[in-house]
Fold these 2 entries.
Entry 1:
Amino acid sequence: MLKNDSELPPRILLGPGPSMANARVLDAMSHSMLGYLDPDFMVVLDEISDLIARLYKTKNLAMAIPGTGSAGMEAGFSSLLEPGDKVVMCLYGHFCERMFEMATRVGANVVPIRAQWGEPFPEELLENELKNHADVKLVTAIHGETSTGICQPLENISSITKEHGAMLMVDAVTTLGGTDLDVDKLSIDYAYSASQKCLGAPPGLSPVVVSDEAMATILSRKTKPYSWYLDLSLLANYWNERRIYHHTTPVSMMFGIREALNIIFEEGLENRFARHEKNAEILRSGLKSMQFDLLGSGKSRLNQITPVIIPPGVDGNEVADQLLREFNIEIGKGLGDFAGKIWRIGLMGESSQTEYVFAFLSALESVLIHQEFPL
Ligand SMILES: Cc1ncc(COP(=O)(O)O)c(C=O)c1O
């Protein structure tokens, strides 16, 4: 047991999140408390809302709702869908399956389209499926499937969805702030993310954006959403000019995310996306030169997560444990179908730094030499 926190050395977090938080963000979180309806705090909320909308490239309503990425996911399903509503879901990884589980719990009429994990989702499957249905309310997809390292192109999914008059919900948990996502151009009705990955803040908030059509749909529901806490219309009434109390806002997290968003725009979106791409490329080259096989190829590779196939004869858990114990480097393990088969190396937000890539590659080399693996 730890006697005090100072015994815990700082970690280099190269897993699927949380990623490292910027020191300025942690400092901002030590701001003294303000009441959740304090007029000065309302200014902070407005700034956050503007910054989130700029990051998602949208004019839609933007909020930071309490909870992690799964809260944003659940707010979407519980608010947008009523029991019996038809939702067509593009499924290609572990987090897609979490979305499927949530939609099922709503009692929606769920139409899953399952595709190969580790490959981009073939959009023609969506086109073919939608031809069989006249009454689809919602289509769902994930921009960056963290379990497989796939960055899903969304242009065709969006145009097919819109041709069929459905709304589009997109998970941007892993991509927001690290890869371009143009919500207005893609006509995305609801997108959600998380504070702890490419934004460089601790876990605890889910930045979401809701289109006018999505909000109108929520306001005209016949039944109330099963979740009161994550009811997007109630949350909106606090974030809009009505300022109606809904829950006690996590004040420190708000100061933190505002600073994180300011840092993102100081760096510049294009520079930030390029940094994520460059560091992922250095990592892939390093791993390939050590003869590792990586999942995925070409443009669909996610810069935020590099999935590495654990070679036969290597104890994947032991390597990850040794990296943490001896080098203070955290990496991710495989999830679902990929459990025990891959490592997931995350380079997101503050964690996407060239010096961390080199620290990881040299630590991995030492650990493998220790395991007598022929490099
Ligand atoms: C793509 C994706 N969606 C949703 C989630 C769930 O987010 P959280 O763990 O913040 O609740 C994750 C978490 O890693 C994720 O990678």
Note: The chain has a mean pLDDT of 96.
Entry 2:
Amino acid sequence: MKQIAVTGGKGGTGKSTVATALAVLLGKEHKVLLVDADVDCPNDHLLLGIKRKKVKTVWQRIPRWDMEKCTKCGLCSTVCKVNAVFAPKGRKPIFMQQQCNGCGACVLSCPTKAISWSGKEIGYIYKGRGHGIDFISGELKVNEAVSEFVVDALKEEVKKTGKSYDFVLVDTAAGTHCDVIEALKGVSLALAVTEPTPLGEHDLELILQLLEKLGIGFEIVLNRFEEGKAKMIEASVVKHGRKIAVRIPYSKQIMEAYSRGVPVKDNSIEEIRRLVE
Ligand code: SF4
Ligand code: SF4
């Protein structure tokens, strides 16, 4: 099994377009699982017209206070590094649930064992099938903040069945935060998708630095390529001793496929297939 990430420092560069088109193309000859790990805004199922079915609820542990046991010492507030507890000495602690990341420092530090564990629903795992490929995605509930827990639960599901596939394609969120790092765990190759804009260049630099730090091999895919307009990206990748592996043209046909919600077909996707096979 080859686990490959489709990633990119910037949102809107076409990661999902590449991931879905590549998954469908690979699925013609291989057993493929497409993983939508952009849990804040999953959209691969929309691009592929796949109806998803909820298979699991994701829970996050959160602390619960027993005020009968609380001596109002204020320690739980002192140890919480994300300011989820407000407890000046002599006053009852106030818990701001949305900010809690479930680290457990307050539970461990309370001298009177007034804090125990509870849980809250923060997201869901969905599965589906279409275009000859299997599909799994995670989705963070609206107003929840800790997306990496949903990505972690998603990757745990992938671990259970991933070995039975020839290819597992992980479509990550944009950026270089914890949820992206979680999604990149276990992948052997990453496709860094970018676009020929100053923002594309800036954010490509960030994702390449992250991939290098994590020791993950990568190839660079330039989307919306137009002759003469990619000089800054070409110069930027040279700094990493690399060149652009595949250029996806800026074309009306690709835009139409994207807007109609059908997998993109283009020679450049064939080139990416050859790159990963
Ligand atoms: S650490 Fe325990 S006893 Fe102290 S304020 Fe927090 S809950 Fe109360
Ligand atoms: S579990 Fe961690 S983040 Fe949550 S309130 Fe306690 S110390 Fe703060």
Note: The mean pLDDT is 93.
